[in-house]
Amino acid sequence: MGYYRQQFDPRHRLVASLPLSARSRISHGRRQQDIRGKQGALPDEAVTKAKPKRILIAVDGSQHAVHAVRYIAEHWSPSILKANLLYVLSAAPEVFMDLEAQVYSRQAFKGKYGQWRREMRGVAQAFLDRARNILVEANLPGNHVGVILQEQEVGIARDIIAEAKRGYDAMVIGRRGLSKMEGGFLLGSVSTKIVSGARDVPVWVVGGKIEASSALLAVDASENSHKAVHYLGSFAGSTTAEVTLYHVVRQLSFTRGTNLIPRNEERDQKWLTKVTRDAESMLRHYSERLERAGVAPARVTIKCTTESSSRSEDILREARAGRYGTIVLGRRGLSRVGQFITGRVTSKVLSQADGLAVWLVP
């Protein structure tokens, strides 16, 4: 069990850059200091904008991982990024464990496991080389792109989350989306565990080849939306990406599917006028926050949909109609329930966002 690392130190102390073939072995027990930011007030936009963004890109050799790497390379400014590529080698396939337990097969499979490990390590190293080249060719400085090849310790998802908690501003993963289900796609098992388990680290789930740099920032009046606006601004301020602030207002629940409270047009119109006015004020405030983060007003659009029957469907419909590349969401909105890790709207969007990148901001 061990690590191979050629990486930047999340504490901004750059580790010497070496060719991947010359990386040094680091002991199993080595651990760096956890430098996650302290909880509390949001930092000043100008300070945040100037700081390099530390990105962890978890890869597994698949085409989904290639899409995740290219998403970073093609759509986000190399001038503000430092990226580590993480490849966690899986433990032995269960067939090896099953056969090893059977006395009659031990001799036949003697040495096969070691051969398999060497082959998998070679595949992983070659993929890391390829992924690193993609980032460097996109003008990320070579000493700002590191690689981590690590054997599985606890579990692939939990090992990735453990690394992400060591001072990164985002964790990027590919969205497998191969298991079709009614109404959407199932994430791969590792992706699902990461989304569920990474409660304190922003997660970017990349759902294929992303063509556009524009972002749809879905907001409400919750604290999570305030954080999402600030978070996106800290990245978009150094790019030319266009940002749309999008708010969806649901229909009044008591006017749909029930006769308990009679529909009242005058009352409903007063309510709609008030929520529309409040939404416009909220969106102007968020727009000003983006401007303070360096996003030019000409790049910011404000949209609001009222009387929605499904907020998640409207968010996805707007994302596809507007040809956005990224949807940005807070993990939870106003309907926050303590026992749920991810809000209902966020979960629905994520399950159906094939062909889009989705940012989950805690």
Short description:
This protein has 362 residues and is an alpha/beta fold.
Descriptive overview:
- The radius of gyration is 23 Å and the shape is elongated.
- The protein has 362 residues and is α/β, with parallel strands linked by helices.
- The chain has two domains: 3-16 and 40-206, Rossmann fold, CATH 3.40.50; 215-361, Rossmann fold (3-Layer(aba) Sandwich).
- α11 (344-352) links the parallel β13 (326-330) and β14.
- α2 (63-75) packs parallel to α5 (112-137).
- Strands 2-1-5-4-3-6-9-14-13-10-11-12 form a twelve-stranded mixed sheet, with helices on both faces. A two-stranded antiparallel sheet has the order 7-8.
- The protein is built from eleven helices and 14 strands.
- 38% of the residues lie in helices and 21% in strands.
Q: Helicity range of the residues?
A: 25-40%
Please outline the major beta sheet.
12 strands, mixed
CATH class of the largest domain: Alpha Beta
Question: What is the first-to-last residue Cα distance?
Answer: 32 Å
Strand order of the largest sheet: 2-1-5-4-3-6-9-14-13-10-11-12
* Tally of discrete structural domains: 2
The poorly predicted ranges are: 11-44, 177-186, 334-341
Total DSSP helices? 11
Structural class by sheet pairing and helices: alpha/beta
Strand content: 15-25%
Query: Strand-and-helix sequence, N→C?
Result: EEHEHEHHHEHEEEHEEHEHEHEHE
Find the CATH superfamily of the largest domain.
Answer: HUPs
Radius of gyration: 23 Å
| CATH level 3 topology of the largest domain | Rossmann fold
Average pLDDT: 79
What's the CATH architecture of the largest domain?
3-Layer(aba) Sandwich
Shape call? elongated
Number of strands: 14
